[in-house]
Amino acid sequence: MSTTTAAPSSGMAGKLGTWLMIIATVGLAFVICVELINILFYDPWSDEKFLFKLSGSLSGVEIGPLTYLMFGSLAVALMMGLPLAFVTGGLGVMFIYLVGDAMMLNIVPGRIFPLMANPDIAAIPLFIFMASMLERAGLIEEMFSVVYKWMGGISGGLAAATIVASTILAAMVGVIGAAVVTMGIIALPAMLKRHYDHKIAIGSIMAGGTLGILIPPSILAILYAVVAQQSVGELYLGSLLPGLMLSGLYLTYVLVRSWLNPKLGPPIPVEDRISLKEKLKLLGNLIAPLALVGLVLGLLFGGIATPVEAAGIGSFGAIIVAMMHKKFSIAGLREASVTTAKASAMVLWIMFGASVFVGFYILQGGQQFVTDAILGTGMSAYGILLLLMVLLVVLGMFLDWVGILLLAVPIFIPIVKALEFPGLFGFPPVAGDDVVLWFGVLYLVNMQMSFLSPPFGYALFYIRGVCPPEISMGTIFKSSLVFLAIQAFGLFMCVLIPGIVTWLPGLVYG
Questions:
Q1: What is the DSSP string of 418-480?
Q2: How many CB atoms neighbour CB 478 within 10 A?
Q3: Is the C-alpha dihedral spanning 383, 388, 389, 395 positive or negative?
Q4: Fewest CB within a 10 Å sphere: which of 214, 263, 273, 351?
Q5: Sign of the dihedral defined by the CA atoms of residues 447, 453, 459, 462, in that order
Q6: Is 137 helix (H, G, I), strand (E, B) or coil?
Q7: How confident is the model over 494-506, as pLDDT tens digits?
Q8: 360 by DSSP, 3-state: which?
Q9: For residue range 285-307, what is the model confidence (pLDDT) as tens digits?
């Protein structure tokens, strides 16, 4: 009885939703037609209009209410499931027109063209292609196999091998989704077969996979450098030690817990282990890809090549490495190219849309409004920094990493620049010239945390897609908590000891 009554009610709800969509679409089309008639046939500087004119209708709105209108509309549109790139760009154009007029829409090309002309942006598709080519050549599976055979004989060895392989993979792949899914497909079945604790197995894959945000050549670091007008090479050097520190912390946790309780991470049987001679022979399979990564990062860190030049060498080198391993094919090249085009288009569209939205908001005085509001709280510099970090984690639960960067970072950087960080508990202060670099690395660590934060962290859903059905979403959530705490500790260490971030760039670049 209840089933038969539920079906008509759900059908009525579906029809109602369809009619509401039709009415909304017709209403929007009518408004657009009226506005087009006003633009084409009426003087924009006179009061004459056809029926009504929305241009400039919000011109008298103060920046406070405008902030709620703009970001409230953005939140509603995103909750409806609309794509971020088109939501930010569309709302940006709409509010430009509502606050100003048709002539004010010239802001749009004024925001987009400087991004298109920035040479560092060209490094993004090249690094994505390098990662795609190495992945399709089967080098990632080969790399895990080598590390797995080296470390599988100790308690927790497979989880440790996953973290080590993910750390190496992070230096090849600057995109998080690919790292988490790939390691989930390769490493998770091996650990489950050896009866590893689910939380350690899944947590090590997710935490290791997110290292791609931090360890060079991170795509996110390039975007931060573009937005913050920071040197990509300095940011890469600044993020290297924190990335290796977090990798070491993950390894320490997994190995210590498995040593205390071997049932959590049983070693592989003696008969499956190989001799030292065989292990050394296996390392030959990693020479070419590791030499390529070392070459690319060496050129970047040494200031010998620009990011674009290093990325171009890496892309060409990835093809050569695939040929050396006899894994190159025209079909693989085509797939890598299509993947690169799709990922690059997604990143660039989000950049363009968010740049228009945030650029208009800043031009209206939004930057000063937010700065005054935050600085007016009376909190200390480190209290404000904590507030910004919390906001970034919360945003990371709902937006993707490119959207957060382009929406939040342009507003946050001037706030951080206006503060002085004298050091905590007697540790050295952050030099004024290093604040943007230091905050950039804190931001990257923060994005790692947002990827692991329940309930909407992206890594949680990436791993869900490759987990067997018996592993529940609750288990995945619990798996992330310990590693999330380790990331929070790593972030605190970078705040407490700024030299972890600034020492290496200072050593290389002076």
A1: T-----STTPPPPPGGGHHHHHHHHHHHHHHHHHH-TTT-HHHHHHHTTS-TTS-HHHHHHHH
A2: 15
A3: positive
A4: 263
A5: negative
A6: coil
A7: 999 999 999 988 8
A8: helix
A9: 777 777 888 888 888 777 788 88
